[in-house]
Amino acid sequence: MVSVMAALFYVLSLPAASCHAATLITSGDENVKLVSIDCLVKDSTISTEYSAIVRKYADGAISPDVWLPSGLLVKLNLQIKLNNEKKSFTLRLHRPLETLEIPGLESFVPGALDLEFQALSADNTQYFNASGVERYTGLSFLLPEAPGNRGGNLLIGGTPRRERHAADNVPRGAPQPLSAPFNLVWDHIAGINPDISSADSLPPVKVLSPTWFALSSPDGDITNKGDVAYTASAHMNGYQVWALVSNGFNRDRTKKFLASKRAQDIFIARMLAYAAIYGFDGINIDFEGVANDDAARLTGFVRRMSDAAHAMGLFSSIDVMVPSKWSTVYQRKELSKIVDYVAVMTYDEHWRTSPKSGSTASLPWVKAALERTLAEVPASKLLLGIPLYTREWIETKDKNGRLKVSSKTMAMASVDVRQTETSSVSKWLPGAGQNYLQFTEGGATHKIWIEDSKSIGLRMDLVEEKKLAGAAFWRRGFEKPEIWEQTVKLSQER
Question: Domain limits at 461?
Answer without folding.
Answer: 168-388+454-493
